[in-house]
């Protein structure tokens, strides 16, 4: 039985087209380890959910959500200024069907994060990039990659997280 190149291409396109209806909700975050640790260690619940949440988020910066384009060989990179410095955070999400076959699919999702002096077009490559790759299918739920980095003498956790089973944003 021979499968022509055109048939194979159609099968691969249909396989990844299923993911096109999905919306992944991703965000980049920065946590000042010392400040956040103090907030957590001194926290006392007040019963005011909003005030408690605000106290617990001390030392944390959450950047606006973004929605990477899902599809074969699709790369989405977002950049943000690192708070209180001249550094740039670059975060990338990349989808492919060629690098990590599993029992259910060949599709995978690669997340990368890097902190550097200049914005990067792809945060999944380079000596200072931190990245993770996961099987990407209907069961993929939440994916996160983070790194510890020192900026101006302080320790931070910098990461990117994507939620893959969230509803599309309302318009």
Describe the structure.
The protein has 171 residues and is α+β, with helices and mostly antiparallel strands. It has one domain. 18% of the residues lie in helices and 37% in strands. The protein has 3 helices and 8 strands; from the N terminus they run αβααβββββββ. It has a 4-stranded antiparallel β-sheet. A hairpin with a 6-residue loop joins strand 3 and strand 4. The protein starts with a helix and ends in an 8-residue tail after the last strand. The relative contact order is 0.20. The N terminus is likely disordered.
Number of strands: 8
Number of helices: 3
What can be said about the biggest beta sheet? 4 strands, antiparallel
Cα shape: globular
| Poorly predicted runs of 5 or more residues | 1-20
Q: Whole-Å distance between the termini?
A: 47 Å
Share of helical residues:
10-25%
User: Could you tell me the strand content as a percent range?
Assistant: 35-45%
Strand order of the largest sheet: 2-1-8-7
- Helix-strand sequence: HEHHEEEEEEE
Give the averaged pLDDT, no decimals: 83
Please give the radius of gyration in angstroms.
19 Å
Helix vs. strand class: alpha+beta
Q: How many structural domains are formed by the residues?
A: 1
């Amino acid at each position: 039985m021979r499968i022509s190149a055109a048939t194979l291409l159609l099968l691969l396109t249909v396989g990844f087209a299923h993911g096109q209806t999905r919306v992944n909700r991703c965000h980049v975050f920065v946590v000042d380890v010392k400040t956040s640790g103090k907030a957590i260690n001194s926290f006392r619940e007040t019963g005011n959910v909003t005030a408690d949440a605000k106290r617990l988020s001390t030392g944390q910066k959450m950047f606006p959500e973004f929605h990477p384009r899902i599809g074969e060989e699709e790369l989405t990179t977002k950049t943000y200024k690192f708070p209180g410095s001249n550094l740039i955070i670059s975060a990338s999400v990349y989808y492919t069907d060629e690098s990590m076959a599993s029992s259910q699919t060949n599709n995978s999702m690669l997340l990368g994060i890097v902190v550097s002096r200049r914005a990067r077009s792809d945060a999944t490559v380079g000596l200072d990039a931190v990245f993770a790759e996961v099987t990407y299918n209907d069961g993929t739920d939440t994916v996160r990659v983070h790194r510890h980095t020192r900026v101006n003498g302080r320790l931070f956790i910098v990461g990117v997280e994507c939620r893959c089973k969230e509803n599309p944003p309302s318009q």
